[in-house]
Amino acid sequence: MKKLSVIAASLAACAVMAGSAMAQGSSGEGMKVWFDSGGPVGGPYNTIVANGAKQAATDLGCELTLVYSDWSPEKMIENFKNGLAMNPDGMVIYGSPGDDAYEPLVREAIDRGIVVTAIDTELPRLQPMFQSKGFGYIGPDGWKQGEDLAKEVLRRGDFKKGDRAFVWGLKRLENRGRRARAIIKTLEDAGLKVDYLEISPEVDKDTALGTPIITGYLSSNPDCKLMIMDHGALTSQVGNYLRAAGVKPGEIFTAGFSLSPATASAIEEGYLTLVSEHQPYLLGYLSVLQVVQTKKYGFGGLVIDTGGGFVSAENVDKIAPLAAKGIR
Amino acid sequence: MRCLWESHRRGILVTLGLIGLLVLFAIASPRTFLNPRIYRSFLSTIPVTAILALGMTLLVVVGEMDLSFPSVCAAAAYVFAKAFLATGSGAVSFVLAIASGAIMGWINGLIVVSIGVPSIIATIGTQFFWRGLILLLSDGIALSLASVRGTDIYSLFVGRMAGEIPVQSLWCLAIALGLALLLNRHPFGDSLLFIGDNRKTAAMMGIPVAKVRIKAFILMGVLSAFAGVLATLELANWWPTQGEGYMLLVFASVFVGGTSAYGGEGTIYGTLIGAIIIGIIEAGIVSAGLAGFWTRLVHGLIIVVSVSIYATMARRPQDR
Questions:
Q1: CA atoms within 13 A on the CB side of B264
Q2: Does a structural domain hold residue B253?
Q3: Which residue segment(s) compose the domain that A35 sits in?
Q4: Contact A246 B131 (CB under 8 A)
Q5: Which of A47, A127, A250, B153 lies in the 20 to 30 Å Cα band around B215?
Q6: Are B144 and A324 a contacting pair at CB < 8 A?
Q7: Is the ipTM of this complex over 0.85?
């Protein structure tokens, strides 16, 4: 609730700023914002982030340059170096490469008067270091989001100590993997027996390849009561996985992250119980809004936690149409 | 017996490899591998890899490569999904998707054969081009095809025969049989093998080299489109990165199956068994209780061991 109030207040403040600026002309007029969308061209998650950034650029009247990094930290760094050469007014980055990799580059950008801010994955050392220069963070706290989902699952599900749970995640990605680690820790602290499986690069790109893996796991572990997919695309395919494994809707408590049209269908069909959504559209929108306002008025960096939204059968009908438009 | 071994030793070896792997998995995880459910699941997923690998086998046999198939797969499936959402007609959507696959394959063929760009380079270019085009058209947003479930096209291609057997596995078998006949019992297959073995000699023998090579690319385009439609129907969903996960699996299937990377030699049977081996590894490892990280190690081991055996077998005694 507190988090929502912070988001609402920030949005309202930004809207007021944008609104008053509109009265005098667009506040981002003539500004160039460089934006790393993080993932590949057409990736379901980063496309929503990019949609938010595009809308903000349209609303503010600034010029937006979108680049794609295929979730590769090396490519993010390379893109950033190329972006610096364009000398934009603001740059929006994903924190995945980490503080050490980004520090000299962010320092160089800020020394040159470019406003830099991070989204999706935090840069815990750089953020306070450069916050007064406009370096903020908009996105979920990975650990907290994982912990919140696991707690919500435990609250809604009827689990006992010793029940078996399956978690499918990406622990190999250091910052991104914190979400899976938080889920595992929370479930284990509650006494559940957790089986963790790392998502292979092939399944990461083509979710259909995960079907026999789930069938194999559930055949070997028919006592599994809970499945959590720490991956948006895999979450959307839970229905297909369970159908192939011969599991009926509602037999296993299933949870995951991020919305898409297929995820909404899985919830409607009853195969998917709970989805945590950190509102990726807002990552794009608010970060562009912030760098433009900072560049114009010298504000400090905003820190906004966008996590905390849950989608289930109770509210999916309102949210599904927005998922189809690439907004939720 | 010796004659059988001499003429089919690659096929026999790859079959023994598959049997060995299945026995190993059945010992490690009897609850999973002695239960029909896991095989039903394999029958629903392996056909996509296998169909792509079968098409690739013919191209490798003729001495070419197609790295654009993941994008062709996704682009044709996009055509299918959009057409189905617009018209509601499975038949029209299917015809359009296959036609688009054939056109994309034909364009690959023209660039390689008529313009003379090496196939690896040409198809890297078209891979980016087709993926870029569908991303522009789709705006990067997935399309849900929940309404396709229960339609005739769904039952025809990915339904469950007698409520149990995924129909796509039967389509895959039929395609494998057809391609095996084409490769071994048809002049087109002879032409592929001759061209793959020595293009100049094949031309001197009167084989229409350019036409045959273009046809092989068109066939790959058609099979990629079909695989894309199957994947889309099975999940009732089209997504923008569709096909990308199959790149390494398809080439691994082809080479584990015993097709020569130098062209002029290859078997459809070997590729089919190779696709099954590659398709069961991860599920087998996970069911056995090992961490998923083992998957890549085992994939790599199987590929290196199998191609090393084939390379050793291919060497003449005087070369050793």
A1: 11
A2: no
A3: 2-140+279-307
A4: no
A5: B153
A6: yes
A7: no
